[in-house]
UniProtKB/TrEMBL annotation:
The reaction center of purple bacteria contains a tightly bound cytochrome molecule which re-reduces the photo oxidized primary electron donor. It comes from Pedobacter nutrimenti. Gene3D superfamilies: Photosynthetic Reaction Center, subunit C, domain 2. GO terms for cellular component: plasma membrane light-harvesting complex. This is Photosynthetic reaction center cytochrome c subunit. It comes from the Bacteria. It holds the Pfam family CytoC_RC. One of its GO terms (biological process) is photosynthesis, light reaction.
Length: 131
C-alpha cells in the first residue's frame, strides 16, 4: 500500500514539474524607468539599450552600477552612476529636438524623414567630438 502511494506521489510530482516547465514564465518587468515607457517589453527595452551601446561604443556597465551583493552582475534599477541620469537627460533633449524640428505633420507620408538620435552626435564614442 505504501509502495502505491509513493509511486502515485512521484507521478504527480513529475507531472507538476513538467507542466511548470512548459507554462509561460512571468515576463521581466523593468523598474525605475523615468523616460522610457513603464510598460515597455523586455525585448523592446533590450533593443533600445543595444542602440545606446552601439551609438556610444560602450557596454552596459557604463551607465549601470554593479549589484552590491554580487559585483559581477548589474543592478539595472540603481541610480548610483551619474552617467545614467546624463543618459536620461540626453533622451529628453533628443525627444524635445525631434518634436520641435522633426515632427511628423510636416512630411508627405506622416513619417519624419530624419531625426536626432544618440549616434547623430556621439558617432560611436562615449563623448561627442566638437568639430
Amino acid at each position: 500500500m505504501k509502495y502505491k502511494k509513493t509511486i502515485t506521489f512521484s507521478a504527480l510530482m513529475s507531472i507538476v514539474l513538467l507542466l511548470s516547465a512548459f507554462m509561460a514564465q512571468p515576463s521581466k518587468k523593468a523598474t525605475n524607468l523615468k523616460v522610457l515607457p513603464k510598460d515597455i517589453s523586455h525585448e523592446e527595452l533590450d533593443k533600445v539599450m543595444d542602440g545606446f551601446k552601439a551609438a556610444l561604443g560602450v557596454k552596459c556597465n557604463y551607465c549601470h552600477a554593479a549589484k552590491k551583493d554580487d559585483p559581477k552582475k548589474l543592478d539595472f534599477a540603481s541610480d548610483d552612476k551619474p552617467e545614467k541620469e546624463i543618459a536620461r537627460n540626453m533622451m529628453r533633449m533628443t525627444a524635445k529636438i525631434n518634436k520641435k524640428y522633426f515632427h511628423t505633420k510636416d512630411t508627405q507620408d506622416g513619417k519624419a524623414l530624419i531625426a536626432v538620435s544618440c549616434i547623430t552626435c556621439h558617432n560611436g564614442k562615449e563623448h561627442p567630438q566638437a568639430n
